[in-house]
Structure formats: C-alpha cells, structure tokens
Write a structure and sequence with these properties.
- α1 runs antiparallel to α2.
- The chain is built from 2 helices and no strands.
- The chain starts with a helix and ends with a helix.
- The relative contact order is 0.09.
- It is elongated and about 50 Å long.
- With 68 residues, the chain is an all-alpha fold.
Length: 68
Amino acid sequence: MTMTIAQFEEWSLIICLSGLMLYMFFIIWELAHKSKAGKYGYIALFLVLGLGMGGFVIKTVITYMLKV
C-alpha cells in the first residue's frame, strides 16, 4: 500500500500544524508564567492569543463540512 503525494501532504500538514499549535500554547504559557500574570492574566493571554489559532481550526472544520 503506497501513499500518494496528496495524502502525504494532508497528513504532514495536520501533524506539523498540530505540533506548531502545541508549541505556540507552550510559548503563551511561558509568557504568562514569566510575567507573573496571575489567574486573569493567564485567561486573557490564552483567550486572546489562542483565538487566532482557534479561528484557523474553525476555518478548517467549516471547509471540511462544506465539502461533505
């Protein structure tokens, strides 16, 4: 069983973007931790900075649902 180029690109995009998003969450956590932001600071940072990543995920889900 061989993998086509399109399948490889789809899987590598999913895996690499997931890893990048996890790394970005780590960066946000580290930023909040080093600035001693407190509970509301953590919530604000994750909400505001994580919203961009959430938008990308939502866009992907909506495009997939429209194709099906």
